[in-house]
Specification:
alpha/beta, Rossmann fold, five-stranded parallel beta sheet, 5 strands, 18% strand, globular, binds 4'-phosphopantetheine
Length: 161
């Protein structure tokens, strides 16, 4: 089995915290697939296509970071990709319960799957996509929390209505 790690998430939008995990994941695994979840029951600010496009603008041209999307069960996608490693970031203890539940659910669906947690660097531990959406929608700056392209797309989406 390859040691490529799948980094799944909503990425609505990608934050500097996500980016931190991706870059460090590359150092550990050699290659990371950033897999955008297409969850039809979850309402997102950015469409699947927009989220994938933003990620491609940021990581396009990087051989060790592939951008992709998936629909349905994560375990099926991971198998399809020929690996068994799922990478997830852990910011604070409040992430733990949700992450534990997800890791155990995935493990019960696929015994060979391994979820590897990476503690997000402390400077990013307060950053979440939902906080960022709120800050920008209320006219604040998310400059230090997201890549420039994400800030631009957020402003277009939330302020130019
Ligand atoms: O960024 P998020 O919203 O915390 O990511 C959650 C995500 C997309 C990784 C998770 O909801 C997921 O894996 N969805 C796919 C459906 C699935 O496999 N569900 C069973 C395990 S919880």
């Amino acid at each position: 089995m390859k040691r490529v790690a799948i980094y799944p998430g909503s990425f609505d939008p990608l934050t500097n915290g996500h980016r931190n995990v991706i870059e460090r994941g590359v150092k550990v695994f050699g290659a990371v697939v950033v897999a955008v979840a297409h969850n039809t029951s979850k309402k997102t600010l950015f469409t699947l296509e927009e989220r994938v496009e933003i990620l491609n603008e940021i990581f396009g041209g990087r051989e060790e970071v592939k951008v992709d999307y998936f629909e349905g069960l994560l375990v099926d996608y991971v198998k399809k990709m020929g690996t068994n490693i799922v990478l997830r970031g852990m910011r604070t203890v409040s992430d733990f319960e949700y992450e534990l539940q997800m890791a155990l659910a995935n493990k019960s669906l696929s015994q060979e799957l391994e979820t590897v947690f990476m503690v997000t660097d402390s400077e990013f531990s307060h950053i979440s996509s939902s906080v960022i959406r709120e800050v920008v929608s209320l006219g604040g700056s998310a400059e230090k929390m997201v890549p420039d392209i994400v800030e631009k797309k957020l402003r277009e989406k939330l302020l130019k209505r």
